[in-house]
Amino acid sequence: MSSSIKKFSITRSRDIKLYILTSNYTYFNAICLSSNQSADLKIFINAAESDLNVDNSVVMALDSESDKINLNIPPINKFNKFIVALIFIFARQIFCLFYRELQEQIDSAPNTLYVYSPNFIYLGLFRRIFTKAEFYLFEDGLSSYTNINSSLKYRNKYLKLADKLLFNKHLLRPPQGEYLWRPTVATKRSHKIIQIDYCKENILKMLLNSNNSQSIVDKVSRQCLYLSQPVNTLHTLINGKTCLSTDKISTLIESIQLTFKVFPGLQYRSHPKERHSQHMSYFRFIPKQDSPSIWENECFNHINDQSILICVFSSAAFVPKIIFDKEPTIIMLYRMLFECFPEASMICKSIRNSYKNPLKVLEPNSLSELVTMLKIIQKNNL
User: What is the reported pLDDT for 221?
Assistant: First the structure.
């Protein structure tokens, strides 16, 4: 996303909204969120670790009333925890050094500034840069529905120390609110939860490139996908307290092999942050999905009620229901790893209760139980 900064009039108070993008999913959510919000200036900041497919024409099509700025900043999640804490301490100086013109525009007039972040790291970082702004979280996947994204106990220990000693606990205080697609699925928070609304149909089509996508639903009677996750992501979900051992990964692989025999059409869908070696090392017996589009596009165009989505414990499996109200069969394998996934059961129960057919959300405890569930799926064509 290229940087394009224009000079704006600063003779009056302006309403400014700043959206931080860290993935294709947060880009999708930020566009839907901003399309229903008015502002004099909308700033989109790309802080993604992996490739982010941003279409500037979508940003410009949001509305004709507001000015827009697209900006790139280096992702900070790739640094170690101590370096991240140092970045926070000197954030205002660093930002002013590289983005002086934008800093001056925001600081030089009596503005109302709102910052929308998909995670607490950038929420705190931009609190350090813009001290008088209002701050909100918006959906970033599964962690947004558990307390992982909003609870202080999951934060960087060096960052918490710096916040306590240097910033009087200002940076890591709760946000003013949090925007989610399905507030009823989320755990309880100390801050308010607000529902994200759909953007206009023309913007949605541009965002998903639906006019250029050829649906494969008519070509296959049932689409079956294994939704992969990087191992470090799974470690985050289990609080990072234990590592997934080879034995546990083998159990997972064995279950996938079993599934593969039952559903010959199973394909492996890689995660955007996943290393190529993960598929080659552990799942090469499953054909890899060729040139997949972004997941939101896939859900909109290809996934339907006959699809089957298999994963350890991933928010990607919930996207068809949460955003598009589609009901594929979901098979969660986290219980087979015998690890503690915080609030996993509660989240799955909430998703199950939102389904018209709750039997389509499965959480097997063992291989034999998975076999039984798969036979029921086949027999009843769920």
Answer: 45
Encoded tokens for 121: 């790291």
Q: How many CB atoms lie within 10 A of CB 232?
A: 11
Whether the CB-CB separation of 174 and 150 falls below 8 Å is answered with yes
Q: What's the topology of domain 15-205?
A: Rossmann fold (3.40.50)
CA–CA dist 2, 56 (Å, integer):
9
Name the phi and psi angles at 69, rounded to 5: -130, 130
Token pair of 281 as six digits: 């090392």
Contacts by residues 348-357 (CB-CB < 8 Å, ≥ 24 positions apart):
350/145, 350/182, 350/184, 350/185, 351/185, 351/318, 351/321, 351/322, 354/182, 354/184, 354/185, 354/321, 355/321, 355/327, 356/327, 357/327, 357/382
pLDDT score for 211: 40
As a CATH number, domain 211-380 is 3.40.50
Q: Looking at residue 108, what DSSP letter applies?
A: S
- The 8-class DSSP code of residue 219 comes to T
For 119-130, the pLDDT digits (tens) are: 888 888 888 888
CB 145 within 8 A of CB 187: yes
DSSP strand E in the chain: where? 15-21, 41-46, 67-72, 112-117, 134-138, 177-180, 192-195, 224-227, 267-269, 308-311, 329-332, 361-362
Residue 364 φ/ψ, nearest 5 degrees = -70, 145
Residue labelled with tokens 């609030």: 343
138-175 pLDDT, tens digit each: 988 877 887 777 777 777 777 788 778 877 777 778 88
Q: Identify each DSSP E strand in 175-243 by its residue range.
A: 177-180, 192-195, 224-227
Alpha-carbon 1 to chain mean position: 19
pLDDT under 70: residue ranges of the chain: 1-13, 50-51, 53-55, 77-78, 108-110, 209-222, 231-250, 253, 259-264, 275-282, 284-285, 290-292, 338-340, 342, 381-382
Q: Check for a shared fold between 15-205 and 211-380.
A: yes
Structural domain boundaries in the chain: 15-205, 211-380
Q: How many CB atoms lie within 10 A of CB 58?
A: 20
Model pTM? 0.79
Q: What pLDDT does residue 5 have?
A: 45
